[in-house]
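Please decode residue identities from the backbone states below.
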């Protein structure tokens, strides 16, 4: 097929995907947007509170409740999120210095029981952060992650459990297929996706990693970590590019609004600025504010999208929960 014909077909496919979203019934599930951030101070920041984000995500060590230092940190983070009026979502994973050997199912169960006992207010969990990422211990063992899912489901009845939380790599659908074949009991219907590649490379809405993952799994998908990357080992420092990626994130979410229910933008504060980036070119920075707290273009892009979608402090109707969000006004 000629390259021109391929481009024409791709263009029609993208238009069809966006058109389907635009024609979705008014009863379609409303998008919910929040932030993924490890810093408790974020939730006290006036600029954060002015957005009115109702949900927040944190990644903690899989055995956090068994170590006093990590346990105290989780307690402080949950208190800060509660004070901001947001609902917490906890993802387990490996922290720097921990073994690359994945925990046994018994060890994972013991750690989760301790976490549930310490923090019964948490009702939303994900099994393992970026479980298909080679930097994570269980990345070659989707069957083990499926067993972790069984632990969470059995140990927190009535909770919302994200079965598998993956990166939008080319191999993600194959990894997810192996995961699903190992699940015991009903097939999961809630999944997590980090679609950084699609968002920052402006991959095709119809054929990118987000589309492939949605095709591979049933049910609802949360974009549990996403946003505009200011700098990474593969991307040079560019705040304008990150702002453009933030806008494109919402185009993807709009196109699949029948399936994508939540977006967690990562994260609040950056680690480099234009001057220091030259000396730290491999550092990851997706902050929507500079290290000193000055808002970046991506902060204003997020605010514009929230306003345009009537979300956060711009929600059409402020219910009791929305009105309670710090920074929002009736």
């Amino acid at each position: 097929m000629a390259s021109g014909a391929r481009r024409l077909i791709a263009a029609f496919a993208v238009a069809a995907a966006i058109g389907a979203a635009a024609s979705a019934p008014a009863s379609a599930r409303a998008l919910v947007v929040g932030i993924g951030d490890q810093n408790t101070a974020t939730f006290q920041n006036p600029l954060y509170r002015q957005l009115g984000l109702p949900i927040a995500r944190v990644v903690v060590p899989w055995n956090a409740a068994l170590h006093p230092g990590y346990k105290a940190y989780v307690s402080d983070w949950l208190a800060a999120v509660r004070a901001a009026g947001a609902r917490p979502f906890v993802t387990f994973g490996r922290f720097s210095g921990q073994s690359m050997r994945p925990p046994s199912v018994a060890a994972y169960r013991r750690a989760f029981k301790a976490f549930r006992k310490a923090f019964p207010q948490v009702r939303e969990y994900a099994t393992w952060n970026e479980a298909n990422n080679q930097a994570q211990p269980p990345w070659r063992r989707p069957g083990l992650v499926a067993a972790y899912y069984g632990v969470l489901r059995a140990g927190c009845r009535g909770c919302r459990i994200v079965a598998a939380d993956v990166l939008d790599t080319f191999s993600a659908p194959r990894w997810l297929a192996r995961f699903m074949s190992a699940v015991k009991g009903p097939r999961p219907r809630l999944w997590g996706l980090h679609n950084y590649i699609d968002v920052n490379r402006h991959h095709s809405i119809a054929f990118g990693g987000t589309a492939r993952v949605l095709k591979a799994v049933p049910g609802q998908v949360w974009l549990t970590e996403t946003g505009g990357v200011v700098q990474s080992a593969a991307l040079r420092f560019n705040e304008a590019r990150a702002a453009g990626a933030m806008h494109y994130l919402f185009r993807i979410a709009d196109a699949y609004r029948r399936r994508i229910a939540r977006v967690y933008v990562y994260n609040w504060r950056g680690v480099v600025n234009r001057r220091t980036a030259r000396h730290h070119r491999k550092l990851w920075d997706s902050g929507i504010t500079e290290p000193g707290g000055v808002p970046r273009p991506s902060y204003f892009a997020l605010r514009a999208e929230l306003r345009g979608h009537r979300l956060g402090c711009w929600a059409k109707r402020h219910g009791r929960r929305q009105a309670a969000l710090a920074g929002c006004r009736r």
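Observation: The CA atoms of residues 197 and 203 lie 7 Å apart.
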